[in-house]
UniProtKB/TrEMBL annotation:
Organism: Juglans regia
GO biological process: regulation of DNA-templated transcription
Predominant location: nucleus
Gene Ontology terms, MF aspect: zinc ion binding
GO cellular component assignments: nucleus
Homology family: Belongs to the FHY3/FAR1 family.
Subcellular locations according to the entry: Nucleus
Protein name per UniProt: Protein FAR1-RELATED SEQUENCE
Keyword vocabulary terms for this entry: Metal-binding, Nucleus, Zinc, Zinc-finger
Length: 278
């Protein structure tokens, strides 16, 4: 609650939202004790979230889901004391840094082979970490179960109907979506919005690129956070367990942050000084 209040003070016009990816990852922990969790509840919730194309459609599906599984009294989030949260954050960040270091070493020294001849896959093999590349390869495999048909062409914009199949808990889920390709921008967009949500190129977009014989992947589809040659800034953040004497890079980083904070604090006292700094 203290952190929520601080966010409201610092960014009063910002609407704080929870990341859908993190929410969905918590399903087993938050709802796993429900007697119907593995017998329809989980797949019903996933259909409600991922298959809704509009906010109205989602709200209707959500009401049906809540009523069907009597979830009105479920406490989805649990409160913790601020100190406990900080301790948990420190431990999580420490583990994250250690895991990232091990993952980066593995990515630079071991190469995961491609499963296709697609230039797009080869590009991701070169730039992405191995774990994220493997995730992307599952989407390459998904092309086998998808196909697209041209609906209409208007200038440089081609509209496709994408038919897809994917495995869910209770069988095969079939879906039909619309996707678009802008020839001038070499840009593909699917109405499922999964690329924007998951930040990994999805099979629907890959399918369009294959159909259009795209050999050079536009940079917008290469997400910086998944690159193996990017220095992750959170690895430099000072946390409780750190002894910066053995980490000169982190020590310099912390010193620069402190200096920048002091400069910003002084500059904001005057409009002219603020303008000079920008």
């Amino acid at each position: 609650m203290a952190m929520k209040n601080d966010i409201d003070i610092v960014s009063p016009n910002t609407r704080h939202r929870y990341c859908l990816w993190h929410i969905m990852r918590k399903l087993p922990k938050k709802l796993g004790s429900h007697v119907e969790f593995k017998c329809g509840l989980k797949s019903a919730l996933q259909r409600c979230v991922y298959d809704s194309q509009t906010s109205n459609e989602f709200e209707k599906s959500w009401e049906v889901f809540i009523d069907a599984y009597n979830m009105k009294e479920n406490a989805w989030l649990q409160r913790t004391m601020l100190k406990e949260f900080v301790d948990q954050f420190d431990n999580a960040l420490r583990k994250k840094v250690e895991n990232e270091m091990a993952t980066d070493f593995y990515s630079f020294n071991c190469t995961v082979p491609c499963i296709s001849h697609l230039p797009v896959e080869k590009k991701f093999q070169v730039v992405y970490t191995n774990s994220k590349f493997k995730e992307m390869q599952s989407e390459v495999m998904g092309i086998i179960y998808s196909h697209c048909v041209v609906i209409k062409i208007e200038g440089t914009i081609t509209t496709y109907q994408v038919n897809d199949q994917r495995v869910v808990e209770d069988g095969i889920k079939k879906s039909t979506l619309q996707a678009y390709f802008n020839e001038d921008e070499c840009e593909a967009k699917c109405m499922c919005g999964l690329f924007e949500m998951r930040e990994i190129i999805y099979r629907h977009i890959l399918l369009i690129f294959v159909a259009r014989d795209v050999k050079v992947l536009p940079e917008k589809y290469i997400i910086q956070r998944w690159r193996k040659d990017i220095k992750r800034r959170y690895a430099l953040i000072r946390i409780n367990y750190d002894d910066l004497s053995g980490k000169p890079t982190a020590s310099r980083y912390f010193g620069l942050i402190k200096l920048c904070f002091e400069v910003a604090t002084n500059a904001c006292e005057s409009k002219d000084n603020s303008l000079d700094m920008t």
